[in-house]
Design goal:
The complex is a heterodimer of chains A (366) and B (408). Chain A has 366 residues and is mainly α. Chain A has two domains: 73 residues, no CATH class; 225 residues, MetI-like fold (Orthogonal Bundle). Chain A contains 14 helices and three strands. Chain A has a three-stranded antiparallel beta sheet. In chain A, helix 6 packs across helix 13, helix 7 packs across helix 9 and helix 10 packs antiparallel against helix 11. Chain A is globular, with a radius of gyration of 28 Å. With 408 residues, chain B is mainly alpha-helical. Chain B folds into two domains: 112 residues, no CATH class; 235 residues, MetI-like fold, CATH 1.10.3720.10. Chain B has a two-stranded antiparallel ribbon with strand order 1-2. In chain B, helix 2 packs parallel to helix 4. The two termini of chain B are 58 Å apart. Classes of the chains: A mainly alpha (366), B mainly alpha (408).
Chain lengths: 366, 408
């Protein structure tokens, strides 16, 4: 009897331990993912520069040649020296990474270091410059602009459409007869659309917008349309949930006071569901910001050195840039990639934080 | 740089409609004030109706102008703008002339709102349907070249077609079995990681954890769901892949960095929150009376979970797993970055395998024209993916609905 009890107690402890182990595993995975990106990406937030005099002949393997050339063409240099960008190789060497330099190069670097000509500063290049073939000159400007334009377009299309669809389904769609069947079909359709793999949206965009309509590949317009399609079901579902959570006593009260159905929806239901709709929409936006696969399919895989200025310009987005950079073999590239991921995660954090804060604020007011 | 004129026209139209709204509304207010009696509709509905008329006129002018417009003709653009302003204002004025005290503006506006909402939601459905149709169309074109039987049962996948006529290996082989096998292998690994972990997290959080632990751990696991797939792909490529490789190397096996195991592991981590939050919901929905009955019979907590809670939550858990499967099958970035591209038929998790999504990306990201069987094969794979995930989702929804009915 007591042995059976002890066995059951052990089983109980084991079960509880398994639960704790599962949580520990998930948290460890979270820490591992974020931590490895942080550790790798933190290095790319700073970069080395070298003071070079205009007359000096410098090894282009150590100092960014295009930077040097551009600066040396200028006749008015200060104090006879300029500060130029170190190449990715030199930068990695100075950061103590595993880079092989020739003895001659090492000697030069040591001499520069003794003369105090090497400085380390915040890597502004990463944010202000477009993409480049050279790791030290590659920046996120193109990607940031592309993401901004495409998200703006997607939000401008998907938000009104999604919220209108949710309002219609919630309050005005027929519930009986053939109309009711149509409504239910529509609901099922939207629910399934939300669970369709995102890559399928890329295929659809390719088939419809590029092959059928004849828009050019990899332009921001197509990307925005595809992201809008992707966001649409998320927004509809979130908005419907928010609309459904408005207590019927409030809408009933409005109806009792003589408001028409349209007045009830726009006067009481939408304002009360507002915070929920807003939060859901912002989360949809965050999801669209991280979307990569559909954009690859519509051709956003090309090397782009110019930030898009309009909807019909070729564009790239932040996650696509991450994907493209992750191909680079050198450590400098993986460092940059990790830094780009940090920027992406930072933006997502900002968006989610904004959603939470807005929601708390609006809920509080009510 | 994009030609900004169409955008300016949109802004102009919007401003015009706003002007009509305020003008007509204020006119109605003045009339009400002078008459000193109650009108049927409030002034703002008179304004809104006129603005709707103006908007209709503006959109017609906009559409016609956009269709007829020669590029860079300043004169045409000026005429376009003038026509928009004139016709928009005219339409608003025509409607506002009917505005009297007895005019029933509100029902008109409400009918327009209803119709507009219905139109917008049908538009969404039409877009979906058109899109599915086009996918089907491209896939059918592919099945005109390659028989369905060969596609579904063929064991050879080498879609590289020749650039020139008569080159060796010109007609590629399109047998989807190796691709499907790779997908299933990675999905299986991901589920092996995610299902036990996610389920145990859900059980612990709903049955054992204190409220504080729950409030702390639940958002943390949800962060895992919020990280974009491309980040997981990078993580798999640079952290997990080499780790698996060196671990296997220490055990004496030679493993490529891009292995099914690395991709599957990371995908499993990504799916954990999906399973844990869905199972959490269903476990919480199990009535307390079931647990109380089990405790009353002398069962321990874990026995209650295993013998009473889990069996009654099973349908919900099954549907969570089905949704996880559909998510894993359709996941793209992790496998593109960490699973490799060679279509080998292998059940060894340490091999580099390929998946449906990887092949779609590989087939469509080259620079080529979009009418070879190679690109159409991507649509056939996409259709397969779409059908598979659709079936999984529908089955999961049906299971959940049955379950809800049981405890409603």
């Amino acid at each position: 009897m007591s042995r059976a009890l002890a066995r059951r107690k052990r089983a109980e402890a084991r079960f509880r331990l398994m639960g704790r182990a599962a949580i520990a595993f998930a948290l460890l995975a979270l820490v591992w993912v974020i931590g490895s990106v942080l550790v790798m990406g933190a290095g790319a937030l700073t970069h080395h520069r070298v003071e070079v005099s205009a007359m000096e002949l410098v090894d282009p393997a150590l100092v960014s040649a295009s930077d040097l050339g551009a600066q040396q063409r200028r006749s008015d240099f200060q104090d006879g020296t300029q500060s130029v960008l170190a190449t990715a190789r030199l930068d990695q060497y100075l950061k103590g990474r595993d880079v092989v330099l020739s003895a001659e190069q090492v000697a030069t670097v040591e001499r520069w270091r003794e003369q105090g000509r090497i400085s380390r500063g915040f890597n502004t290049t990463l944010f202000t410059r477009p993409d480049s073939r050279d790791a030290e000159r590659a920046g996120l400007k193109t990607a940031l602009f592309g993401s901004l334009i495409m998200l703006a377009l997607a939000a401008a299309l998907a938000l009104p459409l999604g919220i209108a669809t949710a309002v219609y389904l919630d309050s005005f769609a027929p519930r009986r007869g053939w109309g009711g069947r149509l409504t239910r079909a529509l609901e099922v359709n939207i629910n399934n659309l939300a669970a369709v793999p995102s890559i399928v949206f890329g295929l659809l965009g390719l088939a419809v917008f590029i092959n059928l309509v004849g828009l050019a590949r990899s332009i921001a317009l197509v990307g925005g349309l595809v992201l809008a399609l992707r966001m649409f079901p998320t927004i509809v579902i979130a908005s419907r949930a928010a609309l459904e959570s408005v207590p019927p006593r409030i809408t009933d009260g409005a109806l009792c006071l003589g408001a028409s159905p349209v007045q009830v929806v726009f006067g009481t239901k939408l304002p009360m569901a507002g915070p929920g709709i807003l939060t859901g929409s912002i989360l949809g936006l965050a999801q669209a910001l991280g979307e990569t696969a559909p954009l690859l399919l519509i051709g956003m895989i090309a090397f782009m050195t110019e930030a898009p200025a309009g909807l019909t310009d070729p564009a790239t987005s932040l996650p696509v840039q991450v994907f493209l950079w992750s191909d680079g073999a050198e450590t400098a590239w993986s460092e940059r990639t990790a830094a780009a991921i940090l920027v992406l995660l930072g933006l997502l954090l900002l968006i989610n934080g904004a959603a939470t804060a807005l929601r708390a604020r609006l809920d509080h007011r009510r | 740089m994009t030609d900004p004129t169409p955008l300016y026209m949109l802004v102009l139209s919007a401003l015009l409609c706003a002007a009509v709204f305020y003008h007509v509304r204020d006119g109605a207010r003045r009339r009400v004030f002078l008459a000193g009696q109650r009108p049927h509709s409030r002034s703002r509905y008179h304004g809104a109706l006129a603005a709707c008329a103006a908007a209709a006129a503006c959109s017609v002018v906009y559409g016609v102008g956009l269709a007829l417009r020669p590029a860079g003709d300043v004169l045409f653009d000026a005429g376009w703008m003038a026509a928009t302003g004139l016709l928009g204002w005219l339409a608003g004025w025509m409607v506002s002339r009917r505005s009297t005290m007895a005019f029933r503006a509100r029902p008109h506006v409400e009918r327009i709102v209803r119709i507009a909402l219905a139109a917008l939601s049908t538009l969404a459905v039409l877009v979906t349907l058109g899109i599915v149709a086009s996918l089907l169309f491209e896939a059918l074109l592919f099945f005109g070249d390659v028989s369905i039987v060969e596609f579904i049962f063929g064991t050879q996948w080498s879609p590289q077609t020749a650039i020139r006529e008569g080159q060796a290996g010109q007609s590629g082989a399109f047998g989807a079995v190796p691709v499907m096998a790779g997908t299933l292998l990675i999905t299986a690994i991901a589920l092996l990681v995610a299902v036990p972990t996610g389920l145990m997290i859900a059980i612990y959080l709903s049955e054992y954890a204190s409220r504080r632990t729950r409030a702390l751990v639940k958002p943390m696991t949800e962060i895992l769901a919020g990280i974009p797939p491309v980040v997981y792909g990078f993580f798999a490529l640079l952290s997990v892949g080499p780790a698996v490789r060196s671990l296997a190397g220490a055990l004496g096996a030679n493993v490529p960095t891009q292995s099914a195991l690395a991709a599957g592991l990371v995908m499993g981590i990504m799916i954990i929150p999906l399973i844990s939050s869905l199972s959490d919901d269903v476990i919480n929905a199990v009535p307390q009376s079931l647990r109380d009955g089990s405790y009353a019979l002398g069962a321990t907590r874990s026995e209650t979970v295993r013998r009473a809670v889990l069996p009654s939550a099973l349908p919900g858990i099954v549907s969570a797993v089905l949704l996880a499967v559909s998510r894993a099958i359709g996941e793209t970035m992790i496998v593109v970055m960490a699973a490799g591209r060679g279509a080998t038929l292998s059940a060894n998790p340490l091999d580099s395998v390929t998946t449906v999504t990887v092949q779609i990306v590989a087939l469509l990201t080259g620079d080529q024209v979009f009418d070879s069987s190679k690109t159409r094969a991507a649509f056939a794979l996409g259709l397969m993916l779409f059908a598979l995930t659709l079936i999984l989702n529908v089955v999961a929804l049906i299971v959940v609905r049955r379950y809800k009915e049981r405890y409603a």
